[in-house]
TrEMBL record:
Keyword Signal: yes
Organism of derivation: Quisquiliibacterium transsilvanicum
Superkingdom to which the source organism belongs: Bacteria
Keyword rRNA-binding among record annotations: no
Signal peptide as annotated in the record: 1-29
Protein name: DUF3108 domain-containing protein
Keywords from the UniProt entry: Signal
Length: 271
């Protein structure tokens, strides 16, 4: 074999050997690059989840005065105690209302409402709601997320709707959304939240009426005014809600106006 052919063969073997040696290095570099990309993607996803996660609700005890015909008239008919408790993973909301003054001669007993559930990155996730008016039978709703249904105390089950809130949790959830996503509550915008009634799930919608300075006995409060839009064929009362900016967007005032124009006005008592 000539020297030139041996040299060419040796070069070919060296080239093949060098290529084989470079394969694991290239594979290692590619794997490292993929791992870095996956880590960066996970970090971005975690940051996005953290940014989109709703805050925890405030915990504490509050008291509301309930007035007939508007709180400005001063005709107080009831007092409502309101409490939120949570451990960061689960929550409980209690509301107890009792008549006062002349109204106590007509309405006896206590109106009790309770909401229990989990706290998630999307806010409140109710699991059970109950209410009882005086001596009337208790009404409740159990939300079974594994079976994807809601069971009612006296009505057939209904399919569970994602994001549903009950009559107590809905106001707290609106406040959490307003804190985390204020752009959704600009004047004129409408926020839809499925709402648990006594026998079915309703497609509740809340229209933002913008910010409003609310006059209270303790001074003016900056609030966000929302109006619950009832379906056209419903005879539900009109509900107006004012969420307080200095109260972590909890309700400061609720006003209920029935189809006949009668008003019940619920105002937070400030220290």
């Amino acid at each position: 074999m000539s020297a030139d052919r041996m040299t060419a063969r040796r070069r070919l073997l060296l080239a093949l050997a060098g290529g084989a040696a470079g394969l694991p290095l290239a594979a290692g570099a590619a794997a490292e690059s993929l791992a870095q990309q996956a880590q960066a993607q996970q970090s971005q996803q975690a940051q996005a989840q953290q940014q989109s996660a709703l805050p925890l609700p405030p915990a504490g005890h509050w008291q509301f005065s309930v007035h007939y015909g508007g709180y400005e008239r001063g005709l107080k008919v009831a007092v409502l105690d309101y409490e939120i408790a949570h451990d960061g993973g689960r929550y409980r909301i209690d509301s107890k209302g009792r008549a006062e003054g002349l109204a106590a001669l007509v309405y006896s007993g206590v109106l009790t409402q309770e909401s229990e559930g989990r706290l998630t990155s999307r806010g409140l996730e109710p699991m059970r709601y109950r209410e009882q008016r005086g001596k009337r039978p208790e009404r409740w709703a159990q939300l079974d997320r594994r079976a994807h249904e809601v069971r009612f105390s006296s009505h057939p089950p209904a399919p569970l709707v994602d994001g549903v809130q009950d009559r107590l949790s809905v106001l707290v959830q609106l406040g959490l959304l307003a804190r985390a996503q204020p752009e959704r509550f600009a004047a004129g915008r409408v926020v839809a939240l499925p709402e648990l009634g006594s026998r079915r799930i309703e497609d509740a919608r809340y229209a933002s009426r913008g910010q409003a300075m609310l006059a209270t006995p303790s001074g003016s409060r900056r609030t966000l005014h929302l109006e619950r839009i009832a379906p056209r064929d419903a005879d539900d009362a009109r509900v107006d809600v004012w969420l307080g900016y200095d109260l972590d967007m909890l309700p400061v005032r609720l006003r209920f106006t029935d189809p006949d124009g009668r008003v019940l006005d619920q105002l937070l008592r400030f220290p």
